[in-house]
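User: As part of a screening pipeline, I want to sanity-check one entry by hand. Below is the sequence and the SMILES for flavin mononucleotide. Please return the complex as structure tokens so I can compare it with the automated output.
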Amino acid sequence: MEWWRIAGVAMMSTMGTGLAQDTGEIRLPPPETAGGMSLMQALQARHSTREFAGRALPPQELSNLLWAANGVNRPQSGQRTAPTAHDWREIDVYVTTADGAYRYDPPSHALIKVADGDLRPLAGVQDFVATVPVNLVYVADLERMSGAGAEDKAFYSATDAGFIAQNVYLYCASAGLAAVVRGLIDRDALGAALGLKKHQRIILAQSVGYPAGTR
Ligand SMILES: Cc1cc2nc3c(=O)[nH]c(=O)nc-3n(C[C@H](O)[C@H](O)[C@H](O)COP(=O)(O)O)c2cc1C
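Assistant: Here is the complex for your manual check:
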């Protein structure tokens, strides 16, 4: 087993288990879906934090985080840990790290590279955003919201992103991670850097890392 740095996290080579970097796809380890705090304890512990330790999230932590955010919890239907209006599944979770930017693909539980380089400074306007290990960016693909008018698209995509953000908050509380959801974003700059199309809209971002002062 060999460790190397990719995706801003310490990735471990698991030869023959489907890592397909040549296609720009990074398979994550299966999420750990047992354990953690009780839901009531996680609700008690949930809070926003804006002070983070610098160290990267290990691959298992990133896997758990993304699955909690918006992973597939019913493989037969492909439905997710977060609800979506009309089952549109219009929110994509993008991930910016020191090493690149990725889109999380729930069906394959993999990261698809969308940009090289460190886009973290563009993921928000607050200082910690540039150095936090991971910024999740919630992007609505308005073309998936078939039949909805502009007002409904704005309303439901914001609502659906909120569910994902709360999943992340609760996972972080349970796992001892620090997190803050953020609306203060230069959406034009970040959207251009991520290569978003006109029908894709950045709703919110959320910074995640270990709490400052922890090892
Ligand atoms: C939609 C939304 C947008 C937010 N935007 C930001 C932001 O841009 N920057 C920030 O530091 N906190 C942001 N927050 C976090 C709030 O400031 C925080 O949730 C609030 O102060 C309550 O604190 P708590 O989360 O610890 O309960 C946002 C929260 C929500 C729900």
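Points to compare against the pipeline: The pocket of flavin mononucleotide is lined by residues 47-48, 50, 126, 180-184, 204 (CB under 6 Å). Confidence is low (pLDDT under 50) at residues 1-20.
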